[in-house]
Amino acid sequence: MILIVGLGNVGEKYQKTRHNVGFLAIDRLSELYKTSWSKERKFDAEIAQGQVDTKKLLLVKPTTYMNLSGKSIQTICSYYKINTHNMFVLHDDIDLEVARIKYKFGGGNGGHNGLKSLDQHLGKEYHRIRIGAGRPIAGSEEVSDYVLANFSKDEYQIIDSAINSIINNFHFLLVGEMDNFNKNTTQKMAK
């Protein structure tokens, strides 16, 4: 089974914030793979199940808020016996320009509270799809306020395009062709 986690915060007021690009991407993956979301909330998460070819997929949006995501995901991994090497996490990254996409396996958390929580509960050995949220102009606002603010209309269109690129190339990740994912998402965003 492959676990695909979108990081974000629950609630309408956070829906189009920089910190919620993981939720936005997971919703689009759910549409692509025609997964069905469970009406029942278990493990402090919204969960959808589906299948691509012979691979079973579990799509998850933790409902614990960002900095407690790890506890929810740890419980899910334990219950479904999922190794973190089969876990993909989609999340915002302020160290990347808006809409830039980067894949990596393992590594540091860059101060991201959701990743800190995952690392604390599960270790660092999982796949990450980083979606650029940009950084506030020095001294203009706190990072926490910045990531919890909505994208501008123009930024949202660019983010939407980036998420389309992720969705259109996610199959590369599912078959272990990470270089093709990176190459195709980077080329698409450069145009």
Task: Walk me through what this model shows.
This protein has helices at residues 21-32, 69-80, 113-122, 143-147, 153-174, 178-190; strands at residues 2-6, 36-37, 45-52, 55-62, 87-93, 101-105, 127-132. With 191 residues, the chain is of the alpha/beta class. Strands 2-3-4-1-5-7-6 form a seven-stranded mixed β-sheet, with helices on both faces. α5 (153-174) runs antiparallel to α6 (178-190). The protein has one domain (2-190): Rossmann fold (3-Layer(aba) Sandwich).
Write a compact overview of the structure shown:
The protein has helices at 21-32, 69-80, 113-122, 143-147, 153-174, 178-190; strands spanning 2-6, 36-37, 45-52, 55-62, 87-93, 101-105, 127-132. The chain is of the alpha/beta class.
CATH topology: Rossmann fold
Order of SSEs: EHEEEHEEHEHHH
Superfamily (CATH H level) name: Peptidyl-tRNA hydrolase
Percentage of residues assigned to helices: 25-40%
Question: How many structural domains can be distinguished in the coordinates?
Answer: 1
Q: What low-confidence regions span 5 or more consecutive residues with pLDDT below 50?
A: none
Main beta-sheet annotation? 7 strands, mixed
Which CATH architecture? 3-Layer(aba) Sandwich
Strand segment tally: 7
Mean pLDDT, to the nearest integer, reads 92
CA gyration radius, whole angstroms: 15 Å
How much of the sequence is in beta strands? 15-25%
Top-tier CATH class: Alpha Beta
Distance between the termini: 35 Å
